[in-house]
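Incident review: delayed structure delivery

Summary: a single-chain prediction request sat in the queue longer than the usual turnaround. Root cause was a stuck worker, restarted by the on-call engineer. No data loss occurred. The affected request and its eventual output are reproduced below so the record is complete for anyone auditing the incident later.

Affected input:
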Amino acid sequence: MKQFLVTYLLLLASSQLLAADVWNQKSSMPAEGRHRTTGFSIGNKGYMGLGHYNSGPNGNIAKADIWEYDPTNDSWTQKADYGGGPTYGATAFTIDQYAYVGAHVYGTSEFYKFDPIANEWTPISSSPEGAADHVSFSLNGKGYFMTFSNYYQYKPINDQWALMGSTPSNVGSWSNAFAVGEKGYLLATNGSLYEYKEITNTWTYRSDFPGESVGGWSNFVANGKAYIFSGYIAFLNPTSRQLWEYDPATNGWNQMEDLPGATRRFSSAFSIGNKGYIGTGTNGTNMSDLWEFDQVLASEKLTLDEPQIIFDNQNKTIKFILNHENSIAGLDIYNLSGQLILHLDSPTQNEWISLFDFNKGLYICVLRDVNNHVYSKKITL
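Output delivered after worker restart:
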């Protein structure tokens, strides 16, 4: 029976070797690794750039380059440098076919409009108040910028800003903001979440963020839900790889599969269709990588009554998270020859298990619960 199970799992892995996973690593941004970057999307293209790195003999280096990502062929194209020059900590919102980027370290109130067709940046009116590493979103053809204790509305039709009122929580550096449908959201660094209704110009307190990080997040929105990624757990360090889904319809949070790549803070993100893209950031090492998150596949997996098997290739570790009440009886890992490489009785969930001594190759991880249900995942070292 055991040999039959192993053979079946190996055949299943071979037939689904190219099947999509929730997370897929894509081509890295072809530029220096960095953090405090800015990301946004326009139509079916994503954009990422700016940022800085501050290690080495040259000290702090800020960047002005902007890169366009095309998911259809997994390729990058360099676009015109940012109008405000090299900088970092800029916020961005998009309205129709344009992006509006500003409030950065070297120009805390200035904003520029980006036209991807003309490939040019045009200065717009500066916001009445500004600060780097603050947040914004767009609703119904208008932009909203939150800084300290105030929030401002920008109307591109007349290039004017207007003070709308006070924010429900102080907006410090490295807060988070996003819009889903007709509502905007502010996530403060104390974990409080607030919902903004434009029609009444009011804020409502919502469910607190339950993740381990307390700031330095990035986010994307896909299929009517928001996704909050990573950040720092204590001030700057240590850093996280968690991803949390917020559903405005239920005012509820779900923990999704962790990023298989490195932990990080100060990454940037954008979404195209039902997929989110996360890249750059730092954990002491500046990164230029890009990861794609499949929201549809993730939602389908979340509804299944089975555990998540999470593999971290960079650190060669594996863990699992239970989504039902049945406890795990054992974990087995086989190589392609069907040889049992690792067996653990009653392993503890959510604890990383080292595979450091494993040789490079394809392996099958098999979880078995107390009711003899079997769950498997292929991994490649």
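Verification: The helical segments are 2-15, 295-303.
Action items: add queue-age alerting; document worker restart procedure.
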